[in-house]
Amino acid sequence: MSTAIKPNHIGRKISRIRELKDMKQEALAQALGTSQQTVSSIENSETIDEERLIEVAKALGVSVEAIKNFTEENMISYFNNFYDNSTSNGMNGIFNPSHCSFNPLDKMMEMVDENRKLYERLVQSEKDKIEYLEKLLKGK
């Protein structure tokens, strides 16, 4: 048996997705109508029956395939495109560049420009205040 091959530990995948969604075990347990100890047991299980997996996927707001195919590498793409997953032409959470509607770097540069403009307005406002106060002091 090769040690290079990782087992498909479904419980760890469920746990990681839950953590990424900033959900506590108690919250998942409540959504499943079960106890926190049961959720802990599920997350420590290497396998899970299909019916329970469907319930867990629904409670987490992801597809069963997304849990089964979950990896750290594709999780960023999956969660960034979460709302597009239902229409991803069967790709089920795998990054699909045709679904990108904007370039993140362009958005970041827009934010930088907006911040620069706001800063310039703030500096101008402070200059105006100083000018006004100087006029008031000269008038006395």
TrEMBL record:
<feature type="domain" description="HTH cro/C1-type">
    <location>
        <begin position="14"/>
        <end position="67"/>
    </location>
</feature>
<dbReference type="GO" id="GO:0003677">
    <property type="term" value="F:DNA binding"/>
</dbReference>
<dbReference type="Pfam" id="PF01381">
    <property type="entry name" value="HTH_3"/>
</dbReference>
<dbReference type="InterPro" id="IPR010982">
    <property type="entry name" value="Lambda_DNA-bd_dom_sf"/>
</dbReference>
<dbReference type="InterPro" id="IPR001387">
    <property type="entry name" value="Cro/C1-type_HTH"/>
</dbReference>
<keyword id="KW-0238">DNA-binding</keyword>
<protein>
    <submittedName>
        <fullName>XRE family transcriptional regulator</fullName>
    </submittedName>
</protein>
